Amino acid sequence: MKNSPADSRSQFFNQYDLTNRQLEQVLETAVERRADYADIYFESRTAEALFLEEGLVKKASRSVSQGAGVRVLAGDKTGYAHSDEITLETLQVAARTARAIAQDTTQTQVVPLDSTPSQRDLYPLATPPIAAPLQDKIQLLQQIDEEARAYDSRITNVLASVAVEQKNVLILSSDGGVAADIRPLLRLQVTCIAEDGTTRQQGSYGGGGRVEFDFVYDDARWKTFTQEAARQAILGLEAVDAPAGSLSVVLGSGWPGILLHEAIGHGLEGDFNRKKVSAFSDRLGQRVASELCTVVDDGTLPNRRGSLNCDDEGTPTGRTVLIENGTLTSYLQDRLNAKLMHMQPTGNGRRESFAHMPMPRMTNTFMLPGESTPEDIIRSVQNGLYAVSFGGGQVDITSGKFVFSASEAYLIENGKVTRPVKGATLIGNGPDVLTRISMVGNDLKLDAGIGTCGKEGQSVPVGVGLPTIRVDGLTVGGTQA
Amino acid sequence: MDLTELAADILDQARQQGATAGDVVIASGESFAAGIRLGKVEKIQNSQEQRMGLRLFADQSSAITSTANFAQAALQAFVTETLDLAKATATDEFSGLPDQSDLAQDVPDLDLSDTSAPLTLEEKLARAQEAEEAAFAHDSRITNSEGAEFANAARETVYANSLGFCGGYHTTSFSLSVVPVASQDGGMQRDYWYSSQRKLKALEAAKVIGQKAAERTVRRLGAKQVRTQEAPVVFEPEMAASLLRHLANAISGSALYRKTSFLLDKIGEKVAADGLFVEDHARLPSALGSKPFDGEGLPTRQNVIVEDGVLTSYLLDTYSARKLGLQSTGNASRSFADTPAASTTNFFLRPGTTPPKDIIQSVRSGLYVTELSGFGVNPVTGDYSRGAVGLWIEDGEIAYPVEEITIAGNLLDMFKNIEVIGNDLERRSPVSAPTVKISRMTIAGT
Question: Low-confidence residues of chain A, pLDDT below 50?
Answer without folding.
Answer: 1-2
